[in-house]
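Saturday, quiet lab. Running sequence design on the structure tokens for the scaffold JK sent over.
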């Protein structure tokens, strides 16, 4: 879900952006208007996240999945050990992708025994000595599992796939070597990844790293080594302006915490519905839930869609249902879902 205000602004500007007589999707990425737009988007992101001066902000095509390859290409060489913390399917996919680049990937923690409903206890993650980096996924969308802390990795650069949690609350960027995030959750449409990389890591790329995925080359060219995803950059800027209007990350944190707590409280009080995730690992953004009678799942999803409550089917790999309540989802959306679920339970319990 994207903020309605942003969609309406984009709609109004689409035929004639900044009095150019063209859509933002038509102007040259080298035009003074679009260069200023990209610079504005980057500065807003720096302001909102408090990104230190010794970090670069990159706009790269290919989404987060592209960065499953981009990270090892930029931070390691063949034969290096790279560490992974596995708490769900996306971290596991990144782990498997790293194997394609001649690395020695090690799962220093794997929560498979809990069926990926837990995160490791704080202080238990121990990086391998000499590892090129340690990768983790702060929020796993499919399982609805989220870290309540940032792992301490010492001299080993910490890499985070923040696709589904970035901009949902304040963040200490200085704790990380690299943060990457697909834009399709809290930052706009699919197709682009935002990469935030510390300066001292820019010169580690392999010689055969594709130019468009080279952090150093992209940083040197202000993300315009090739034609960038202009519409995604433009919409990200609009969303960042919306974030500021919501009170910044502090304001969104209050809003997001309240939405999640409301829904979890309802689930915990029910004998008909349940959430499988450990209480200390519950996500603010993605809340899976089950029914006592799984035979009702398809009926639930179909009736919910008829009521205007969409995309509630759980991922095909885990089943059940899942409510994704990203930044743009209002409290009213959560309340409407709860009311529907109460009525469904009344009829089918």
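Result came back. Writing it out in full:
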């Amino acid at each position: 879900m994207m903020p309605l205000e942003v969609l309406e602004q984009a709609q109004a500007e689409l035929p004639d952006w900044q009095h150019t007589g063209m859509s933002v999707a038509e102007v040259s990425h080298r035009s003074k208007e679009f260069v200023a737009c990209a610079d504005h988007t980057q500065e807003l992101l720096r302001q909102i996240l408090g990104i230190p001066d010794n970090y670069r902000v990159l706009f790269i095509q290919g989404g987060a999945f592209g960065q499953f390859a981009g990270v090892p290409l930029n931070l390691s060489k063949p034969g290096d050990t790279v560490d992974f913390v596995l708490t769900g399917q996306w971290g596991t996919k990144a782990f498997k992708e790293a194997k394609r680049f001649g690395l020695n990937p090690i799962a220093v923690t794997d929560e498979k025994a809990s069926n990926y409903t837990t995160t490791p206890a704080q202080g238990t993650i121990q990086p391998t000595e000499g590892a090129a980096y340690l990768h983790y996924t702060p929020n796993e969308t499919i399982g609805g599992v989220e870290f309540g802390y940032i792992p301490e990795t010492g001299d080993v650069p910490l890499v985070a796939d923040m696709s589904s949690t970035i901009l949902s609350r304040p963040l200490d960027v200085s704790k990380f070597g690299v943060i990457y995030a697909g834009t399709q959750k809290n930052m706009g449409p699919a197709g682009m990844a935002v990469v935030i990389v510390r300066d001292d890591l820019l010169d580690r790329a392999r010689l055969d790293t594709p130019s468009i995925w080279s952090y150093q080359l992209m940083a040197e060219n202000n993300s315009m080594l090739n034609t960038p995803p202009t519409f995604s950059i433009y919409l990200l800027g609009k969303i960042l302006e919306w974030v500021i209007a919501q009170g910044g990350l502090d304001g969104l944190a209050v809003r997001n915490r309240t939405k999640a707590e409301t829904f979890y409280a309802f689930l915990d009080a029910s004998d008909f519905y349940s959430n499988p995730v450990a209480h200390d690992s519950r996500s603010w953004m993605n809340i899976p839930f089950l029914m006592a009678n799984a035979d009702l799942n398809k009926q639930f999803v179909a009736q919910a869609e008829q009521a205007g409550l969409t995309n509630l089917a759980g991922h095909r790999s885990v089943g059940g249902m899942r409510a994704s309540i990203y930044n743009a989802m209002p409290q009213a959306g959560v309340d409407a879902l709860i009311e529907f679920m109460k009525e469904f339970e009344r009829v089918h319990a």
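Notes for JK: The radius of gyration is 21 Å. The CA atoms of residues 55 and 199 lie 5 Å apart. Ask whether to fix the surface positions before the next round.
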